[in-house]
Amino acid sequence: MLLPAVVAATIFVVISAIHFYWAFGGQWGVREAVPVNTAGEPMLHPGAAGTFIVALGLLFFAAVLTANTGVFDDLASRKIVSWTTRGIAVIFAIRAIGDFKYVGLFRKVRATPFARKDTVLFTPLCIVLCILCLLAAQPI
Fold it and tell me: Which of the chain's termini has less CB crowding within 10 Å, N or C?
């Protein structure tokens, strides 16, 4: 399906751009982007290289979703693209479910800046991306 693929690809490009911004030293939104424990200490310490790799991965996801539109049919089979898209959907479903403590729908820690953003933005976005990927992976 064309529309879900284009919408998801666009979202992935935007999220990738934010990660490139962070990888090159940007600070906007960093405080709310990393889960913290109950003492307020970050659970992750992403460096520039790791953040850059995540940004590249998100661009790859955008390319895969774009491939669902048929634009890369000469380069990749529809079957591989469809299954890869389903794999991306699984990644975001797992992220939406979370770790049952700090991240996702079933997290216990809810009073941190990250947890508030996770409630209103990150987890719902993961659910939307999961659904868009599943819709985009359907045969035409």
Answer: C
